[in-house]
Design goal:
31% helix, mainly alpha, single chain, extended, 84 residues, 0% strand
Length: 84
């Protein structure tokens, strides 16, 4: 079985910290990094969670975020992202 992967660059407009969940010494939550290159990484599950949250916020507001248009259907959110 072959697994394909891609590199995506993310430009964060607000501070972003994806911790590794384990700390040593003074650093209680080090930045998660790719082992071979040392580049910081953001797991796909994190991106998926952020996107789901944006759609759920839109559904609660009943609009697209700009105050126009219909809200997002909860069923569509569950279909796209799975049940929470």
């Amino acid at each position: 079985m072959t697994t394909a992967s891609r590199v995506f660059w993310i430009h964060a407009l607000t501070p972003l910290h994806v911790g590794a969940g384990q700390g040593v010494g003074f650093i209680d939550l080090p930045v998660m990094r790719e082992k071979a290159t040392g580049w910081p990484i953001v797991p796909g599950s994190t991106v998926k969670g952020v996107m789901r949250g944006l759609f759920e916020d839109s559904a609660r507001r009943g609009g697209t975020g700009e105050g126009t248009g219909p809200g997002v259907d909860k069923h569509l959110i569950d279909t796209a992202f799975g049940r929470a």
